[in-house]
Amino acid sequence: MAPGLWNIAGKVACVTGASSGLGRSAATALAFAGCKVVGVARRADALEEWRADVGGKTACVTSDLGDRSCLGDTLSAVRKPFGDIDILINAAGINTRMPADTISHEDWDRTLELNLNTPFFLAQGLMPGMKKNGWGRIVNFASLQSERAMPNGISYGASKGGIAQVTRAMAEAWSPYGITANALAPGFFRTELTGPVFEDEVLSQKLADQTCIGRNGEPADLDGPLLFFCSDASAYVTGQVLYVDGGFTAK
Q: Fewer CB within 10 A of the end CB, N or C, for the chain?
């Protein structure tokens, strides 16, 4: 094994959705791996709580990522603490859980703006620094709904199907410059986003039984796959969607 294959100490990472759920877990894992981490989210108090818990070389940027007019200021703000971004984790997302018959134009647009448009335009805006350094990692958050339809998930599924494709397109466009683009597709993890699912104990157990492993996910289950995609261990892996779902999609 080549020395330092998994070493990302000193890299600068930007993690969206860092105030809660899997975004917070990802930001914490990268900080503990020695990265300088800029957490981005809408809730300043929750971001500062994360920073206080983690310590180290971390910074917070408060931004409504669903508002495209904030993009320019956000790009400037995330580069300010530590310089160019080496690793971008697009974890922020929303799921309105509305039936196909009743979802409004506004809810559809809001979902696709945050879940699909923002990850692309953040990556596009941070790309010059990655190209200059000849090294970069983009990790998008896909979903089981990137390939499966689920009740009341038409807008969320459309956005996550788009994430799978935009990840491949990012790889085609930017991997010649030493930048890989991959996506993690988590199974069912207990987060704020999946709260309604886990409130139903019967449904939660049904989903656990659907996996090959026999349980739903814990945040730490994503740490290894995340660090793989962020390090030189995955230098020849790009344009891929990795399902971290306990074998849910295998059955």
A: N
Q: Is 236 a catalytic residue?
A: no
Burial class (CB in 10 A: 0-12, 13-18, 19+), 195: exposed
Per the structure, the count of domains in the chain is: 1
Residue 1 has pLDDT above 70, yes or no: no
The per-residue pLDDT for range 52-109, each reduced to its tens digit, is 999 999 999 999 999 999 999 999 999 999 999 999 999 999 999 999 999 999 999 9
Is residue 49 exposed (0-12), middle (13-18) or buried (19+ Cβ within 10 Å)? middle
CATH number of 106's domain:
3.40.50.720
Catalytic residue among 156, 177, 236, 243: 156
What pTM was computed for the model? 0.96
Q: Looking at the domain assignment, is residue 76 inside a domain?
A: yes
| Cα distance between residue 75 and residue 58, in whole Å | 16
Whether residue 125 is contained in a domain is answered as yes
**Which range marks the domain in which residue 178 is found?**
12-191+220-242
Confidence of residue 191 (pLDDT cuts 50, 70, 90): confident
Does the residue 203 lie in any domain? no
Domain for residue 248, yes or no?
A: no
